[in-house]
Amino acid sequence: MSNAQREPLCLVRGSISKPQVIFLGCSESHWISHRYRRVFPWYAAVWPFHAGLTCVTTVPTVVRPGETLSSTHFERRAGGKGANQASAVAKAGGRVKLIGAVGEDGAHLVRGLEATGVDISDVIVDNSEPTGRAIIQLTPEGENCANYLLAPPLLSSPPTSADSSYTHLLLQNEIPWSATLAYLEHATKINATAVWNPSPLPSAEQLRAIPWGSLSWLIVNEGEVCGMLDVLGVGGDALQGSGQKTSQHATQLLEKLHAHPRFSQSVNVICTLGAQGLVALLSPSGTKKADSDVLHVPAAKLSGPVKDTTGAGDCFAGYFVAGLMEESAGSGPSGVVGVLRALRLAVKAAGLCVQRPGAVESTPVRSEVERSLGLQ
């Protein structure tokens, strides 16, 4: 059965965590961006999930090896890329189901996700394991770096026949690698649209083994594109400069990735560029060889200061997948026009997200985004 014959449903198979956020008093945002954005980009995307707690601390600068700093503020928040993204799909108006696990200390996170409209019927509460954790350092400028402790091992469970009703699959890299591969294979079997953001960046061995033909969309930042090209043996210089020069360089990197024999030209690739927006390389349509479409979407204009970039990538991914779901259901424009509409909506949602603290709680609802775009 094709996606057009099924009511759109997004399956998120990923993480739920308890982010712990450290607020930094005087930040070195450029250093943070350079060192951490390859591994923890602020534009990322997801599914099958890990859910957990996020611990956030505010400190004067990101801690270096051997350095001890005093933080100025501490928070515990709901988070995990899977939880963040599932919530974003729901807030964008899409039907979404989350499969994952939390410990007994994470039951309240599951109730919070249900309140946003996420189907949590397959989220397991495992009393024998703690909920996953994310430890985040946050600067006054809103930049962040993070490390993760994965959620309970139940996340390794493969898909079952009961999971076959979804039309869209959103994955990140916060669940066991075996589960990622199993769900990509399953999505192919049921003709579902698979979206993957490899964050944190997988190992070289994993990237060589990924079944690229099972993917419909790949969401990366420029550091991840360069990392992939390095693994594939062709290399790619990191982007420098800004504006048109940066978008042109990103396009060249995506074209190099697209042309590699180990990659699949059927995969559409989005490269996020922070303040320069994003570049999307769409795969050629039809059976005959054709040039790929290249789209550039500028970053959203902010009405206030950046407060927290922690959940912006997940917000972007969730809103983008919701846009794809609308296109498949015929409730939005199709083709390149439909993709461009979904990208613009996702960029605006992420722009609103960074102007408020948090991850799950910072994602705007659909009416806010449309109002900001002048659609209401």
TrEMBL record:
- Looking at the record, the residues that make up the Carbohydrate kinase PfkB domain are 55-364
Q: Which residues cross the membrane?
A: none
Q: Name one GO biological process term.
A: D-ribose metabolic process
**GO molecular-function term, one example from the UniProt record:** ATP binding
Family annotation (InterPro entries): PfkB_dom, Ribo/fructo_kinase, Ribokinase, Ribokinase-like
Per UniProt, the keywords (alphabetical) are: ATP-binding, Carbohydrate metabolism, Kinase, Magnesium, Metal-binding, Nucleotide-binding, Potassium, Transferase
Name the source's superkingdom: Eukaryota
| Pfam families recorded | PfkB (PF00294)
Instruction: List, alphabetically, the CDD domains matched.
Output: ribokinase
SUPFAM superfamilies annotated for this entry? Answer: Ribokinase-like (SSF53613)
| Gene3D superfamilies per the UniProt record, alphabetical | 3.40.1190.20
Q: Which PANTHER family match?
A: RIBOKINASE, SUGAR KINASE
Could you tell me what this protein is called? Carbohydrate kinase PfkB domain-containing protein
